[in-house]
Amino acid sequence: MTTAQELDERYGRTRRRRMPWLIASVVALLVVAGFGWMIVAQSMDSVDADDLGFDLVDEHTVEVRFQVSGVQGKDVVCVVEALDEEFGVVGWKVVEIAGTDDHSRAVSASVPTVAAATTGLVNTCWVA
């Protein structure tokens, strides 16, 4: 006489194992949570810089005014550039901005140049 277990094995009716599915679900959940946290952490440290204007002081100096927003309480570093008529970089400066509790702040930087500039602007900013 055959037992129920032998019949189940013969006809492919085995017990479903839930442990591999459970492990796979937990791993997938951890991966999704990890990617979510990376996106949130990156957006918390994003810095936005807007050009406000520039003044050509003389042939070798440009005063650039810009606004930095998005980060509170953290130091920010920006690269400010001076460009000539053909949009070539004729001067640049790294500007370090101390962290404050303000959401946005206006900054002015004097950029030395090697030739006459026609404009000044912020290239990029990041959290220090």
Overall description:
The chain has 128 residues and is α+β, with helices and mostly antiparallel strands. 26% of the residues lie in helices and 43% in strands. The mean pLDDT is 89.
Rg: 30 Å
As an assembly, this protein is single chain
Please bin the fraction of helical residues.
25-40%
In the residues, how many domains can be counted?
2
Share of residues in strands: 35-45%
- Give the terminus-to-terminus CA distance: 78 Å
Assigned CATH class of the largest domain = Mainly Beta
Task: Order the strands across the largest sheet as they lie in space.
Answer: 1-2-5
CATH topology of the largest domain: Immunoglobulin-like
Mean pLDDT: 89
**Helix and strand run:** HHEEEEEE
Please work out how many helical segments DSSP would assign: 2
Name the structural class: alpha+beta
Main sheet characteristics: 3 strands, antiparallel
Q: How many strand units?
A: 6
- Uncertain regions spanning at least 5 consecutive residues: none
Globular, elongated, flat, extended or rod-shaped: what is the shape? rod-shaped
In the CATH hierarchy, the architecture of the largest domain is Sandwich
